Amino acid sequence: MVINMEEFEPKIVGFLCNWCSYAGADLAGTSRIQYPPNIRVIKVMCSGSVDSVYIMRALLEGADGVFIGGCHPGDCHYLDGNYKARRKSVLLKSILDTIGLEKERVWIRWVSASEGQKFADTIKEMTEEIKKLGPNPISKHWNI
Amino acid sequence: MKRIGVFVCHCGLNIADTVDIKKVVEDIGKHPNVAHVVDYTYMCSDPGQEMIKSAIVEKKLDGVIVAACTPTLHETTFRNAISSVGLNKYQFENANIREQCSWVHKDNKIATEKAIEIIKSIIEKLKLNQSLSAINIPVTRKALVIGGGISGMQAALDIANSGYEVVLVEKTSSIGGRMSQLSETFPTLDCASCILTPKTVEVGHHPNIKLLTYSEVEGVEGYLGNFKVKIRKKPAYVDWDKCTGCGICSEKCPTKISSEFERDMGTRKAIYIPFPQAVPKKPVIDSNHCIYFKTGKCKLCEKNCPIGAIDYDQKETTIEEEIGVILVATGFDLLPKESIGEYGYGKYQDVIDGLQFERLLSASGPTAGKIKRPSDGKIPKDIVFVQCVGSRDPEHGMPYCSKICCMYTAKHALLYKHAVHDGQAYVFYIDIRSGGKGYEEFVQKAVEDEKIIYLRGKVSRIFKDVGDDGKLIVWGVDTLTGKKIEIAADMVVLAMAAVPNKDTKELAKKLKISTDTYGFINEAHPKLRPVETLTAGIFLMGCAQAPKDIPETVAQASGAAARALTILSKSELEIDPLIAAVDEDICTGCGICLEVCAYNARKLHEIKKIAEVNEALCVGCGSCISACPSNASIHKNYTKEQILRMIEEVT
Ligand code: FES
Questions:
Q1: Segment B205-253, tens digit of pLDDT
Q2: Which residue out of A22, A43, A77, A84 has the highest number of ligand 1 atoms within 8 Å of its CB and is therefore the one to mutate?
Q3: What is the pLDDT of residues B254-308, one digit of tens each?
Q4: Cβ contact (<8 Å) for B598 and A80?
Q5: From A40, A51, A74, residue closest to B626, measured CB to CB
Q6: pTM of the full predicted structure?
């Protein structure tokens, strides 16, 4: 299958923690800050609850990128869930490496409830970066 | 199959402007699970809610989605609405198509598509939502306060005055804590005893307060609302029920030793009441120093006690209490002498710490309020105060600011000048932190009115002069002039860093609450939950949490009491059921969830050897779900299955 890079619109699955990043995304809305429509948000209680299986499944299902948004270090509503998320993401990225998927497809970022602009900017930046990376090679396979 | 009703809100034009509502309704209507779909201008309005309620009844819906604004705004409104017609609250979900869709995109087609996808992913979640009901746990309506200082007393009084029972445990024989050692308090200079005594007396007499002094918490079991606490009452060797506190025993006791209360500036007897205003005013025998306990002879106190209250055979007793909430107020200590060798503290008698100076200033202290230096009783004419000794000093392990020293040093210097008019006071400081009502004015007054010389810089060394005038040479530097300073002082007062009370760590272990690197107890959230610990039902206050002054301590204690009362005021607690559960068939009992749980909500079942969730402690963060290697951890209504289906839906 030939993909027209001009038209390639990546699909990003975003896991946002209920207390900070989801609220940050809401604030982007309340402030009417525009950002690319490429992200689909799944609200989780805490970034620490994001199972690596979720990320792998999203990638296997053809997501071109996975975004994990949590509270800033030290601000997690449940104290240290975001540290757990960060540790897990490091491990997961090494697995992605092993199977030949670019680890840049998985982003973990801290966005607070007051950072609507940062949320929008981050999604914009991620969409652009994933565009550069091109489509998820696994999903290409599946389309044969 | 679940019959879901989807209600699409226009939100005036907020959604309808960018999202093609008609298309959404059409598309969603085709979904096999959707039994009913309708749109309306304002779903959250009364007619909107009525629409939902009647649809639930008429269309026999067993799940409801409102596609509108963020769940933060109206989730509760809609949950209550659906439960009013008999549908379980947890069969409701919000699809956020405003904040996260119509407001952030301008393109009609794109926004419409996205809205549809959002709703569909929420349908996937709702399909598997369980009906849940709030978890109820019973509450023992009694509080335990650990520590009888100003914070512990304040909290105990607040709770007791609200009509609930309090057990107040204090390890020394009297309540009063650090504040009872102070002379006068900044910035108003009221005498500490005068404002403290009414409180200690009130605590001592309060019908709702069971005061256990000379006692320590031995062990704690249980959880929020249902703690079982073992308290060890140390033997006083005096029958306190008989004793009238007349004090004859102490008078007759031949053994004199250094007094802890006077911080070694004065003496006490082997049988003693720590200070005159002690509550309860009952003596204890210090068996380490008592001649009778050492040699088997003496018994002077027994012979002289007019009512036969002395009981050398008294044994330690253990008291068990059922408790609903625990408040920790273990207070602070000053960094021990040995820590800062270069200042000669512990080596030179006339280098003392701030609390020792308080005892010198105190009218009821060892010198009856006369400022006399310990070595020879002379009145010091040149006195040097050094701030930040150990504090703000990473090298000595305490990079934090002890917060109270700037103020109490200014007070010390000022009170010194009030007592020794022809004396000169010098203060070495890094900078002055005097935030607080009336604080800055207080410091300025000390500097201007009392001509206290403030020198900005650190002291490098304190040593004894070679001559025999007993002078202490203080070497320092004034960073404002860049000059080296040498002062021949008669006495030096060090504002030692405030550190947690030495027993705090051990107590924290018993309570299963965490401490920071310095040993202060951690609060649940530094900003939003400053008086709670991470363990539900355990609260903290005062200097056990961090150094703070009296007003702040009292405020925090009342805050902690108020939080504790939110639990005590109910006979049962309702807990949000969106928490963890265990699939007993798959759990292997590996125990990983026990390690990741920051709330001690997990434990292994003793017989079944599989993990359990303590519903009273679980907060539903989901850490254990993602950590469980065998998928046995379940997050209610956020199950892996639900999330995976949502992922499939959006990819
Ligand atoms: S709650 Fe936001 S990361 Fe844990």
A1: 999 999 999 999 999 988 899 999 999 999 999 999 999 999 999 999 9
A2: A77
A3: 999 999 999 999 999 999 999 999 999 999 999 999 999 999 999 999 999 999 9
A4: yes
A5: A51
A6: 0.76
**pLDDT band at residue A6 under the 50/70/90 scheme:** low
Q: So what's the pLDDT on residue B599?
A: 87
Q: What CATH number should be reported for the domain whose range is B333-499?
A: 3.50.50.60
* Residue of chain B whose Cα is closest to the Cα of A120: B104
Q: How far apart are CA A21 and CA A5, in angstroms?
A: 30
- Contacting residues for B552 by C-beta, under 8 A, at least 6 apart: none
pLDDT tens for B95-149 read 999 999 999 999 999 999 999 999 999 999 999 999 999 889 899 999 999 999 9
Tokens for B425, please give them.
């006071």
Question: Looking at domain B4-127, which of 2.60.40, 3.40.50, 3.30.1660, 3.15.10 is its CATH number?
Answer: 3.40.50
pLDDT tens digits, B98-110 = 999 999 999 999 9
Position B530: which residue type?
A: P
pLDDT at residue A140, as a whole number: 58
What whole-number distance in Å separates Cα of residue A119 and Cα of residue A98?
30
> Domain B578-635 carries which CATH code?
3.30.70.20
Domains in chain B: boundaries = 4-127, 142-233+316-331+504-568, 248-304, 333-499, 578-635
Residue B553 has pLDDT above 50, yes or no: yes
Taken in order of first residue, the domains within chain A and their CATH numbers are: 12-140 (3.40.50)
Select from A41, A49, A51 the Cβ nearest to the Cβ of B100.
A41
Chain B residues with CB under 8 Å of A26 CB are: 70, 72, 96, 99-100
Beta strand B483-489 pairing with B580-582: unpaired
Gap between the Cα atoms of B572 and A32, Å rounded:
44
E strands within B171-291?
184-185, 190-191, 209-212, 215-223, 226-233, 256-258, 267-269, 271-272, 284-285
A81 vs B: CB within 8 A? yes
Under CATH, to which class is B142-233+316-331+504-568 assigned?
alpha beta
